Structures are given as C-alpha cells and as structure tokens.
Amino acid sequence: MEYEADVIVVGAGLSGLIAAREVGKAGYSAVILEANDRVGGRILTEEVIAGMPLELGAQWIGDTHHRMFTLADELGVETFAQFEDGETTYEINGPVQREEQFQRENADELGELTRVLATIDEFCEQINVEEPWLSQNAAEWDKITAGAWLDAQGLGPTARTMIEICTVGILAVPTHEVSFLDLLYNVAVCGVTAELLAESEGGAQTTRFVGGTSEIPKRLAASLGDAIVLGAQVQTIEYKDGPTSSVKVICRNGVVAHGRQVVVALAPTLAGRITYVPPLPGIRDQLTQRMPQASAVKVFAIYDEPFWRADGLNGQLISDLGPARMSNDSCIADGDVGVILAFLEGEQARTFGRLPQDELHRLVTEELARHFGPRAAKPELVVSGEWANRPFTRGCYNANMGPYVWTNFGSALAAPIGPIKWGATETATSWSAYMEGAVQAGQRAASEAIDAMS
Ligand SMILES: Cc1cc2nc3c(=O)[nH]c(=O)nc-3n(C[C@H](O)[C@H](O)[C@H](O)COP(=O)(O)OP(=O)(O)OC[C@H]3O[C@@H](n4cnc5c(N)ncnc54)[C@H](O)[C@@H]3O)c2cc1C
Known about the structure:
With about 450 residues, this protein is an alpha/beta fold. It has 16 helices and 21 strands. α4 (about 105-125) crosses α7. It binds flavin-adenine dinucleotide. Flavin-adenine dinucleotide binds near residues 16, 392 and 425.
C-alpha cells in the first residue's frame, strides 16, 4: 500500500490523467491516486441500452477546442458532428412558438439582446485571463453580480429572460450568484459570447465522440499502465518546501504515496477538503471556502426514432416554464434511436432535480410534449444524471465566484505552494470549465512540477 514516484497526482479526471502523461513524457515517474472506482471524473458515459452511450457528464467539444481534437486523434477516438438542422422552439412569456415566428414577433427585443451581447464582448477584450483581478475595471465589475448588471441594461422581459436562460446554461447558477467579473472571465476564456452560446461553427457544442466521451479518459488511463490507484481518497498531504522538497500523500484507505511534487487535480472546493500539513496560507483556504460547485442535472428521453426531425425541428427548446430551460438532440451518429437531452441548471436543478425521479421524469416528458408534440409524451425510457450527490464531484459543471472573490482571493487559484501544483479545469486560462480547460490545466500543472525538479 506504499507508492513512490517523482510526482503524485491527486484525481484521475481528465486534468490529472493529462498531468501524469506529461510527467511521463518528460522522463519522470507519476502515480495517480483516485478516490472513485473509475477514471474520468466529470466525464461519464453510460450504456444504459446496448450500443447507446449516454453522456451523463461531458458531451461536446467545439471547433476551437484544439487540445481535445489533438488528444482524440492521438488516442484514436473518432468524432461526429452535432445534429442541428431545423428550428428551435421557444416558450418565453407565453405558449410554445417555433423559431421563425418567435424571432419575427420579438425582433425588437432580440435586437436589444444583440446589443447587450456586443457590450459584453467589448468588456471581455479588457479581461486579463491569466490574472482577471488585474483587469481594467476589475474592482468595479467584481463588486456587482452579473444579474444586477443584466437587470440594469434596460432589456424587455423576453430579452432579459433569454439572456438569463443562456447564461445559466453556461454557469449553471443564477446570474445573481456570480460576480459580473466572473461572467466576463467565463466568456473571455472561451473567446466571445457567440463562441459560447452558438451551436453552429465556432460554438462550444459542435462535435461529439464516437463510442462516448469516456473513451478519452479510458484510453488515456490504459496508456498510463499501472500508475493509477483507484479507491484511494486522498485525506492528507504533508509537504516540505526548499531545495529537497518532498510530499507524503495519505489516503483514507491506508494507501500512502511519497514523491517530490504533487499535482492536485480537483475542483477547488474538493481540494479544500484535504488536510495540508503545514496548513496552506489563509488566502488559499479562504478561496476554496468561496468556490462552490454549480448545479446541473441532465435528463435523457429515449424514443424509437428522432421523430422531431421530420417536423423540421432540431430538438432544441428554450423555456422559461421548465422544468428544463434548454434541450438538445442527443442521438448518436447513424443511430435509429431518438434521444432528447433536457438540461436542468441552476435553480431548476436544485428544485426539480431533488424531486423523486419518477416525478421529475414525468414533468420533463410533459414539457417535451409541449415542444415536440404528443409522441414526445411517450418515451421508451428516461434516464437522468445528477452530480451534487456524487461525493467526489459535488456539483457541476464547474465552480463559480460570487462578488469580491476574484479580486480578493483569485491570485491563489493556480499559484503553486511549494511542491503543490494545482490542476483541474477551474484553473485553466483557456476554456476553463470545459474538457479543453482540464487538458490545459493538467499540462500547465505538470510543467510547473517538471520545472521544479529540473
Ligand atoms: C453533466 C456535465 C456536463 C458537462 N458537459 C460538458 C461538455 O459538453 N463539454 C465540456 O467540454 N465539458 C463539459 N463538462 C465539464 C467537464 O466534464 C469538466 O470540465 C472536466 O471533465 C473536468 O475535469 P477535471 O479533471 O478538471 O476534474 P474532474 O473530472 O472533476 O476530476 C477530478 C477527479 O478527482 C477525483 N477526486 C475527488 N476528490 C478526490 C480525493 N480527495 N482524492 C482522490 N481523488 C479525488 C474525482 O473522483 C475525479 O475523478 C460537463 C460536466 C458535467 C458534470
């Protein structure tokens, strides 16, 4: 139950797996300690029906997720394009309308929305993604919530609702829960608002993986051989800084690993639950006290065929009634089976996500029938994926920051503390919150550990 390696990696999510791989490529040894009985963390493909992988966790990559495309290529995982032909349906301040009618009737308000998104893009140009707290206007933007800023833009009710739904679709918390600086940072690390919100070229949700996203962590893990210890929940990290820095990592089940450096590749709130000896500086602990995981639940409704496509619909809904505020066509490439994925995010996940599963599934199915017709009322199966109850994730998609967190504590997010380096997507400066960010953060944390040993 004792391991020894140059670098001990905590967490076999994508970030930790990548960090271990980079350490190996540089000629050093790595051991990964993973609390769960599987690798992948927030990536979780489940084959509920044979040949029908469902992505309970991460599902898509976008055109600018270059690290993920390269990784998939290296691992031999093929990709396919997200289906998006047809109209979206809208249920905002009234009954369900198809896209063409909704856009015609709300042209003025949608114009206002475009103006506000352009302002956000303009502000994002001022965001320093490496050190957001040093951005021009950081203090001003960090003391108000994103919701308060949006409320002050003079948007009509439809436009305000639309931007709330789309923003909660990214952050998975209400806009009044994050600072405006945090919203700008989340957009800036991805490019511009269109990259985040659009599903078309350049968006974050253009491409999926054949066989399921879990193929990526599974194949990465296979390439690392026996360097991964499952069921090893890290409880304590003892560390010594200086020219002969060292770490001793102790797990709940008695496993102990000794190394020169440690990469902690966990969401900040989970990293904050580990005991560090000596204790970490106050700023780091106060940061992890203030970075909660967001709230999202995915609900898949499975049908004998994707019947909505024949009606000229793309399977996407936007609704202020719910329970789901958004949905997607989630069929696999070349499959006959129809799958709609409904998203519950922020408050929707917290209220409806806590209902008994049968009731949640009934309410989601009723909503799908309002948008896609009576056939949607009779799915063959409904499957949902919840994350707050999973002890080694405790919410998703990622962590977020309320007012004053970036400016008062942000500098402690990724800064190494002696031999401790911080991985996980939350510490990325490109596509943070996404798999792309997890890869970038894993590479950065590994290179910090390698530099310290060279
Ligand atoms: C429902 C959902 C949908 C998503 N959709 C997308 C999407 O479509 N596209 C996209 O790019 N991203 C998406 N994401 C986000 C993406 O999954 C994450 O950004 C990424 O997987 C994070 O990887 P990570 O390695 O940083 O963290 P994690 O995956 O959280 O890995 C951390 C690992 O550490 C382990 N661990 C926790 N505590 C301990 C401990 N004390 N000791 C040892 N091990 C521990 C965990 O079990 C886990 O394996 C989604 C996430 C979810 C949950």
